[in-house]
Design brief:
410 residues, mainly alpha, two-stranded antiparallel ribbon, globular
Length: 410
Amino acid sequence: MITRLWVLLVVVLVVQAKKGRSPKPGAPKGTYLNGLQQKMATWYSDYNQFHRDNIENSQFGAFVPALKNAFCGVRDGDKKNILIGSECQAELLDLYEETGKCGLEICYLIEMVEQKSILPFMKGLIEKKTDEDAFDYIEKEVVEPLMEHMCGCAVGLVGVFKNCNGNITKSQIFELAGGFSVAALGGKTVTEFVDDLLNKIDFETIESVVRMLMEHLCGPNSDGRGKCYSYFYDTASTLMQWFAYSANQKLSGSILGIGDAPETCAKFDIGGFAELSEFIEIVNKVKSELCVKECKDVYEDVLMGCCMGNMVLDKELEGNITKLAKNFETVVHSLGMADFKMDEYIQYYDSTLELVRDPKCDNDVTFEIKECTGEEGSGSNDGKKTEGKGNKNKGGKKKGGGKKKGKGKK
């Protein structure tokens, strides 16, 4: 009897191990973060079965070895690539030999999926106790290594496909399937259709936009810590928490970014935005939410740091993004969607830039946005470092449950 019980116990433990027992959420129950962690815990426990059904034992799983041979061969100096052809593979090889890391991005992704590398990361995130801890963990494990890699590789990767895109249809996959005519493609062969599509894509402008974005994102943040991609991550994570707080969700830990300002600076009338339909109404609503005297310094720090200034004051970048949008319209038209227009979206983009550059408050509140000085942490605002999350000033955060004197927003 005892032997049978031991056997049953062992079987149960093995089954649970195969199922993938999920970690316990670390944030307090009832908080926004705990709710997200509970969902992630479910994904975690189901991931092994998902991996077996959709990766190992699926049609996609059968293609994994071929994908690895195509995109991981760069590491071994393989000059053949059945998917993108020998010309593009040669470009990738040159890039990899020059940098020692660039050109293996798809390979890394395939290996990550194949080896279930996401599970340890998910476990760590599920166990975090506060919003700040969770955001810091994501930054350390994902944002920093990804952006450090992209800072060194993004422009080179775009350059590879700018140089070799005309030879992609000479690859083995197109030799096998590219000669078939397809009625949906206007009677063109697959090869003719792809060649025509690639010829319409403005790779020169794409390369220019990527280069400018990387210069801005990877440059030093003279208002605070690190590089500008850290500033934008801090801004995004702070806004995400403020959005949850505005939706009356309970926070785990402190309100990010508000320093000594009233906690109402992190609370916005989200419902009011849902009632608006015209873009100009949304712009005016945004201005009414931002143009609050008690919150001016907070919003200037979180939303209008020098890294943001680098982006929105760059007229050349603005022009290239607009040019790229019009090129995207041309490409979409070539796919048969003649009614598709980018004009409205370009107008939204221009209006958003103007809003960030100068909100033009109706009261006496004014904002100033400047470009970075080029030195990390030198303080472009007259040498004064700001108090929000942009420079990770731990004392510049206020606990969500505390009280703060001040009128706040009306």
